[in-house]
Amino acid sequence: MRSDVTIAPFKGIWPRIHESAFIAPGCRIIGNVEIGPDVSIWYNCVIRGDANSIRIGARSNIQDGSVVHCDSPKPGMHDGFPTVIGEDVLIGHMAMVHGCTLMDRSFVGLGAIVMDGCVVEEDAMLAAGGLLSPGKRIPSRQMWIGQPARYARELDDAQLIDMQRGVAAYVRNGREHKAALDDMLLHGAA
């Protein structure tokens, strides 16, 4: 483990990180977290699975400075909310994702907040700066904007293709960053 990344257990549960994932310097990954193949977690992100679990599917990316957390059970109210991030999900810089479900190919824009019990369906988008308040659901192929977020419009096929190009670009970029950091460690520059 590199000294510039914190990967730590909580209550005896260690994060499980696929060997192909890229974890950038400055990241903190704690507890009940599972990170899938070709995921990229960018510089200075915090992913804290202490109150519940966090699952991040293949090829998803969590961009610089973002925070991913989960919600603990509330007796008499609910059993808590894990955070489930599907495959091929884009999460923009400085986003906050908390106790929610981001389905495959969804998009959370820069600085957006997704709160407890929310669902962003397949091919749906919460635009930059949006605030999805607790329990809200963005249906497939819709874009929501604002604080609180509300329906703005449908996403067309070209936008969905562009989102998947973004996923592919982040997979490539993550592999390149991982290789560069591995090379630096191999040659003693870290």
From TrEMBL:
InterPro entries linked: Hexapep, LbH_gamma_CA-like, Transf_Hexapept/Carb_Anhydrase, Trimer_LpxA-like_sf
Database matches in CDD domains: LbH_gamma_CA_like (cd04645)
Pfam families in alphabetical order: Hexapep (PF00132)
Keywords: Transferase
Cross-referenced Gene3D superfamilies: Hexapeptide repeat proteins
Keyword Transferase: yes
GO molecular function terms noted in the UniProt entry: transferase activity
PANTHER family: DYNACTIN SUBUNIT P25, GAMMA CARBONIC ANHYDRASE-LIKE 1, MITOCHONDRIAL-RELATED
Name assigned to this protein: Carbonic anhydrase/acetyltransferase-like protein (Isoleucine patch superfamily)
Organism: Novosphingobium sediminicola
